[in-house]
Amino acid sequence: MEPKNTIFLLLLLSTTILQSSSANPNRSERDRFIESSCQTTRYPSLCVHTLSAYATMIRHNNDQDLAQTALTISLARARSVAIFVAKLTKESPSFKRREYLAIQDCIEVLGNSVDRLGQSVKELGRAGHAVASEDFMWKMSNVQTWVSAALTDETTCLDGFSGRVMEGKVKRLIRFKVVHVAQVTSNALALVNHFAEKRSVKIP
């Protein structure tokens, strides 16, 4: 999925949610909903900070909007980090062999993460339209599996930089960005799980 497609997806998501909402709650109600929902995540402060910037995309008390927005943000940031890491090999060609190999491995697993998050965003949208419980749970299981795998990919990126021999500016730069996107993805997974649990209770 190209970067411009991510921007289009964010805009489309915003338009769809705003059009389908019968009434917009005031800002404080929406903020309270985001804050209370983010308490189910591992990094609640980051969750609130991340989602508050896209609050207009989230209807009050709509857990699917929350999960969909969180996943879309995770996808956009994972892609941004993947592009950043890929540029490192072009802008700084004088890496040590181990650093170069670690970066190449990181590029590969981050690419996998982006693909899986892209699949998850689409599947979550389809799950929201599911009528039968079995169909909903099947689609949500796919989303949960893919997001979990994407999170594993992101953390695996850092494995190649373990050990003192890899200490340096490159490791610090990559670690800072990858840790951030992994935390965002972790929060998105928690919100996906929360939505799946609440919605499954409602569907016969």
From TrEMBL:
<dbReference type="InterPro" id="IPR051955">
    <property type="entry name" value="PME_Inhibitor"/>
</dbReference>
<dbReference type="InterPro" id="IPR006501">
    <property type="entry name" value="Pectinesterase_inhib_dom"/>
</dbReference>
<comment type="similarity">
    <text>Belongs to the PMEI family.</text>
</comment>
<dbReference type="GO" id="GO:0046910">
    <property type="term" value="F:pectinesterase inhibitor activity"/>
</dbReference>
<protein>
    <recommendedName>
        <fullName>Pectinesterase inhibitor domain-containing protein</fullName>
    </recommendedName>
</protein>
<feature type="signal peptide">
    <location>
        <begin position="1"/>
        <end position="23"/>
    </location>
</feature>
<dbReference type="Pfam" id="PF04043">
    <property type="entry name" value="PMEI"/>
</dbReference>
<dbReference type="InterPro" id="IPR035513">
    <property type="entry name" value="Invertase/methylesterase_inhib"/>
</dbReference>
<feature type="domain" description="Pectinesterase inhibitor">
    <location>
        <begin position="29"/>
        <end position="191"/>
    </location>
</feature>
<keyword id="KW-0732">Signal</keyword>
